[in-house]
Amino acid sequence: MDAAELPPPEPATSRAPAGPQGLSERDRAILAFERQWWKYAGAKDQAIRELFELSSTRYYQVLNELIEKTEALEADPMLVKRLRRMRATRHRARAARRLGMDPR
Do residues 23 and 32 touch, judged by C-beta distance below 8 A? Predict the structure, then answer.
């Protein structure tokens, strides 16, 4: 069977059962999107709404839950570690601003 005969992929918003790595289809689609979101024309928020039918706020809530999963770390360790590191940096900067300190 070649690619032309394959059925179309399911939408990224579906909550398909977990695959071999324990991640749902949506979880895998979110990781793929985070890996290459810059390839999409326009703002990231707009791409999130179009691809996942989620608000930006909800998307980031889902993403933060996802990057805490061991299965996500096993599926794409470099990406998940980078996302965790970026989140920690933002958290430290936000805490420093609240305390009136220089975040550097």
Answer: no
| String of DSSP letters for the chain | --GGGSPPPPPTT--PPP-TTS--HHHHHHHHHHHHGGGSSS-HHHHHHHHH---HHHHHHHHHHHTTSHHHHHH-HHHHHHHHHHHHHHHHHHHHHHHT----
- 103 contacts: CB under 8 Å, gap ≥ 6: 92, 93, 96, 97
pLDDT of residue 59: 96
Q: What is the pTM of this model?
A: 0.71
Token representation of residue 17: 């059962």
Q: What is the pLDDT of residue 9?
A: 41
Residue 10 in this model has a pLDDT that exceeds 80:
no
How many of the other CB atoms lie within 10 Å of CB of 93? 14
Tens of pLDDT, residue by residue over 13-45, are 444 445 545 899 999 999 999 999 877 667 888
How far is residue 100's CA from residue 104's CA, in Å, rounded to a whole number? 12
